[in-house]
Amino acid sequence: MYSKIVILHFPAEVAQKALVCQLTKKFDLMFNILNARISNRKEGFMVLELSSATRSGFNKGVTFLKDQGVEVSNPEHQIFKDEEICTHCGACTAVCPTEALYIKRPEMEVIFNKDKCSVCELCILTCPTRAMGLFSKNTEEVI
Predict the structure, then answer these.
(1) Quick check: helix, strand or coil at residue 73?
(2) Mean pLDDT throughout 62-68?
(3) Are 28 and 53 in contact (CB under 8 A)?
């Protein structure tokens, strides 16, 4: 089973279409919605865990989404951890729903596994030193 968390940005003209459901029908992909929003301008944002029996099936589904006008990206391009200001207090690990942030023992070091990140942004809100941050999609600037 091949599984990966992806971020989908839907332009307004396709945000109301059931494209994610078509992944199951057309490509036999399973999905788990981890986060979803629609902005005032009707643009959509969704974080999914997509699973397929093969990597090829996964790639076909992603290609289908891109052909429909959906921007597909990886979570590691969105959330970051600033190692220089992280104090390894562990506050972020308590709120991380996917265990992308965890404490490595016995070193007591906070580790960020980007592949498990669902971009829920709870770590950003919780971090007392603001070591966790979010990159802007359009400008690559830190928000």
Answers:
(1) strand
(2) 95
(3) yes
